[in-house]
Design goal:
9 helices; single chain; mainly alpha; elongated
Length: 265
């Protein structure tokens, strides 16, 4: 089967954006971890976080900016993926796309508050007296838990996992991509879900926490996203679902792809 040239172009664009987005975000996050002790510092009080943020200067602000928008790149391929896979009419994939796109927006809010909200709070905290620091501490805690823990980490991550789980199920059900992507997608999503323990512990003291859940889960999830992109770049075009508008140039039966041989704000 041969897809129209525009569909092939969309497939290559989507694959490239998935790979670049995942790798660029991973690089920015690594720099952020090395220079600001992220994400461990997120659980520290204002008296630790805000002076460290000021000490990081403008470079740290731009690092947060880069971290935010390299993750934001994923919004585009998530929206394009149903068309690329020839399954715009699939209700599961359509719902997953809404969830995935929303997750990126929520995560952007969580990341970008470090660019537009935290700098003013940090400067006021380090230059203020005891009364001012107490007020800033309260403001910091409120925005940190709302914009970070609630929107970026809890809702953002859960919706991202909803997207990856639904996409994995579609892959396993339709073989529109290699089956191993569906299996590994479910595995890394389950692993990443364990990071929710760390987030819920900020609101429910004593909630069980697996310290490695965030690191292993986010790393595995990011590599899986990049793997989806690589498969789109290198693999054959998908079989269009009925009603999706793609026109095949052959009436021969089409089989699925061959079996293989063998992110906190």
């Amino acid at each position: 089967m041969t897809l129209p040239g525009t569909n092939r172009g969309l497939r290559l664009t989507t694959g490239l954006l998935l790979v670049l987005g995942a790798l660029a975000f991973g690089t920015a996050a690594t720099v952020l971890s090395a220079t600001f002790d992220w994400p461990d510092i997120l659980r520290e009080p204002a008296g630790v976080v805000l002076p460290a943020f000021v000490a990081g200067g403008t470079t740290l602000v731009w690092t947060w900016f880069a971290t935010a928008w390299t993750y934001g790149v994923l919004l585009v391929p998530i929206l394009l993926l149903p068309t690329v896979l020839g399954r715009r009419g699939d209700p599961v994939l359509r719902l997953a796309t809404y969830a995935g796109a929303t997750s990126v927006v929520l995560s952007l809010i969580g990341f970008l508050r470090w660019v537009f909200v935290v700098p003013a709070l940090a400067d006021t905290y380090v230059t203020g007296d005891a009364v001012t620091r107490a007020a800033v501490d309260a403001a910091w805690t409120a925005q940190h838990r709302f914009g970070g823990a609630l929107l970026g980490e809890h809702l953002g991550q859960l919706l991202a996992l909803g997207w990856s789980v639904a996409l994995s199920v579609v892959i396993l059900r339709t073989r529109v991509l290699p089956r191993w992507l569906g299996v590994t997608g479910l595995v890394v999503s389950a692993l990443y879900l364990t990071n929710q323990g760390d987030i819920l512990a900020t609101a429910v003291p004593g909630f069980p926490v697996w310290d490695l859940g965030g690191l292993l889960g986010s790393t595995g999830w990011g590599l899986w996203v990049a793997a989806v992109g690589v498969v789109l770049l290198l693999g054959p075009g998908p079989v269009p679902a009925p009603g999706d508008g793609a026109v095949a140039t052959s009436t021969a039966p089409v089989t699925g792809p061959p079996e293989p041989a063998g992110t906190r704000t």
